Automatic annotation (TrEMBL):
Keywords, in A-Z order: Membrane, Transmembrane, Transmembrane helix
Database matches in InterPro entries: TtfA-like_core
Acidic residues: compositionally biased ranges: 212-233
Positions of region (Disordered): 210-245
Membrane spanning stretches: 6-25
Full protein name: Secreted protein
Amino acid sequence: MGIPAWVWFTVAAVAGVAGFALLATDRAQRTARNRERRRWAALRGWQFEETDHVLPTRWEAGAIAYYGTGLARDVVAGSTFTADGRRQVYVLDHETGGKVNSVLVGVRCRRALSVVIELWLSTVPFQRDNDKMPMPDLLGPVGSRYAFVTDVPAARKVITPDLIDAAEEIGGDVTVVWMENDWVLAAAPPNSSPARLERLLRDVGELADVIDPFDPDPSEREEEPVAEEDEGGEVYRPSFGRKQP
């Protein structure tokens, strides 16, 4: 005996309602996150852009290699103070396949590294299939993370005890921290609050200070004006949608 048509109709209707409810919930969460991120940017005096297709293309390693280039949502751009001065920063939702997989936080250094260093949590299945950016060589444990690098001898010079200590402060909710060219980046969970992102920016900024000290010789440092507290005053103003040099 076959199943009556009304049963199939009921199943389809329930599935449709469930799908609509899920879509509505996702849209509501995204709208709330958008408002929260926009408000945070305004309080900091930073720029905000809803979508940027080009920005993720400036990086190839870490979470970008793992998830794919994708696009940037709810992008915050500006600059912030670290112990070694003001640095350019980005915060963005990294979206691939229509889903936000992580919140990327990036702090820019003044000079580029000659090696890519990825620091992954041991609990993450970090192997990937990416012809453009294959998995780098395993260097070994670095604190509670595993280091994968494109040049082992060069990486050993960069991974100092100070860097390990700074990386340990990042937090166990961040799957990967990586250093690529003149950037230090970290991938936080989706829906990370502005308070969490503020702390992560400070921690990533400390890593940037370790690998890119402003002046290794204090006697050569020029006299600088005392910086006011960073409550705004954005310096860097990017052109969204255009790849930066």
